[in-house]
């Protein structure tokens, strides 16, 4: 069988994969890989032109209207994907939030080699947790993610309650100028502050899309903030909704959505109770700042299903270990701005500056220069990271490979369930706890990609 026939065969199987994977897992065999092609395309994003040189993922070669597909996996069952790089630069895939083996984590130089143009790379792992996650490259990230390479992952738990419908939203911006062409991905003066914003705001690559949902029904809305810069404050108009999960992890007790901050890399799962009247529209908005705007609309269709929002119960929790605080090792972590200096060039792109540092060390995270880990952790031991944001900016700080619990903070009263990303507020000091239960080198970085790429990156080594 030639490589070509093999690829075509796998691509054709793409749609049926969920079943195939399940059966293979029960039989104890490795599943057939889903072929995930990183590729160049063009897409209608702005209203005044088709954007060329968009980067996307396809299943085989086929994209979902240009957009990276929503990847569906099942908790506890093996998943395999063969990345084929059809870009003209190296790339990798990082599975954001999935606690999987280090060699599958997608960080070039640290956990795997670069995947050069034309080359494949096989990922295989078993997601231990259910929920809403996402995937993106970890090489030249400002350009690659900014150009389109951000997709949503849904890990299903067979024990999840069934809802009347599900809507998956991938929220992100695009830096496009006249005619829809990409403009400079960042401005250095903004990189040294809150980050550079896009010019066109989308959900699922569309400006203010509308989705039909059953009237009077309970709809699970999975929202992933995959933008390189924007922090959203989501709120709903025209319906009630319960927050059921944050960053994939179920909240102990679902609570009504008022407004909630979702930083780059974070996710929020809502259950929306659609209005009873056919045609009634619910607006999901971004309430941040002084000019709120609509992210997406949900339109009630059909006869009311007359569901009761009080029936929304907690989702089954994910199996995340509780740290033992009585013996935990404390690790101070200072996030600071740093004197501006030139960064070393990297195969994975360099923005040319360092503006930020973790414990005084600025590192962009994907260069081969050997920096020391922030801390060497012992497998199975508990740690409390005492994080101090000594800057006047918010930083969504993400840890690969392990989830942590926020213990306390000088800036918040509500403590979310365990997470992989904490949106640190300006001048916030927070303690987070984790069990170092995954071997390897795990990067820890700000998910405002300009901050990550200009120094706000470090890593932990679990031995
Ligand atoms: Cu979402 Cu280091 O990544
Ligand atoms: Cu940051």
UniProtKB/TrEMBL annotation:
Q: Which GO terms describe its molecular function?
A: copper ion binding; oxidoreductase activity
Stretches assigned to the Plastocyanin-like domain: 68-159, 370-462
Alphabetized SUPFAM superfamilies for the sequence: Cupredoxins
Presence of keyword Oxidoreductase: yes
Q: Which UniProt keywords apply?
A: Metal-binding, Oxidoreductase, Signal
Gene Ontology CC annotations of this record: outer membrane-bounded periplasmic space
Q: What is the annotated signal peptide range for this record?
A: 1-24
- Give a yes or no for keyword Signal in this entry: yes
Lineage, top-rank taxon, reads Bacteria
The record's PANTHER family line, in alphabetical order, gives: MULTI-COPPER OXIDASE (PTHR11709), MULTICOPPER OXIDASE LPR1 (PTHR11709:SF2)
Protein name in UniProt: Multicopper oxidase domain-containing protein
Q: In which organism is this protein found? A: Ensifer canadensis
